[in-house]
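Dear colleagues,

As part of the handover before I leave the project, I'm documenting each prediction I ran so the next person doesn't have to rerun anything. This entry is a single chain, and its sequence is reproduced below.
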Amino acid sequence: MRNLDMTTLRSFLAVAEQGGVTRAAQSLNLTQSAVSMQLKRLEDMLGITLLDRSNRRIALTASGEQLLTYARRMVDLNDEAVGRLTDDVYEGEIVLGVPHDIVYPVIPRVLKTFNSVFPRVKVVLRSSSTVRLHEALKKGEVQLILTTEAQPQPGGETLTEMPLRWVGALAGQTWKKRPLKLAFCSVCIFRSHVLRCLDAAGIDWEMVIESDDDRSVEALISADLAVGALLEDAVPPHQEAINPGGALPDLGFQQINLYRNGGRDELMTKLADMLRQGYCAGPPTLVRQG
């Protein structure tokens, strides 16, 4: 079994299309001798003459004309395969930080749209708490972050605001008991706000978990062993927002804010624009430094 070499086929194709070795060598950025050697190697491998060299202008023999058809198809198919398989060669990378409780439903839609427009740009999604995302932004570990806060910090841009709701298990009853059992991560941005609201309302409370693990908190709430607080659009299907009818204090609203790590990089600007559109924000509110 003899295998045609793609390099020799490409040289043969260039000679046929350019009408000579000199111009073919220029188009391939090779020397004339290199192209001639590749043509000779191809003829020796097939055992046929591909070029009629009897005249000043090189012409294809009958066998050469037949091979030309195959050569075009094989080179095109080779280039298509290489292009398709290396399509994930990235031309840039953006690290986007988002609190876990607001990843859905907006972020997947935004990332899908961004990937369709910039398929060679890699977006790394980092899910963490607002506090830790601010720290990561200062260290340069992320380029863009979303946060959930009562008010934006300097440099922050408010995309939207949502009600902060008490959440518990489906048909749960724990919210009626006193002291009120709470489950919050130690770094949850809502934790201190909720505790202040309970203290102001004179409601006794008890923290039933001390953990950085969001899944542990979620499990306790879903098992009706505690209650927590989430943005209205972030309540998972295995929990529900509590309507306490005045038995628990109103938690007000929280904002979803956008921060970027300096510069006016075009890709970051495009992703930031898509995030704004994703949250259907009006004119951005910017808190300027100083």
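Confidence is low (pLDDT under 50) at residues 281-290. The longest strand covers residues 157-169.

All the best with the project,
I.
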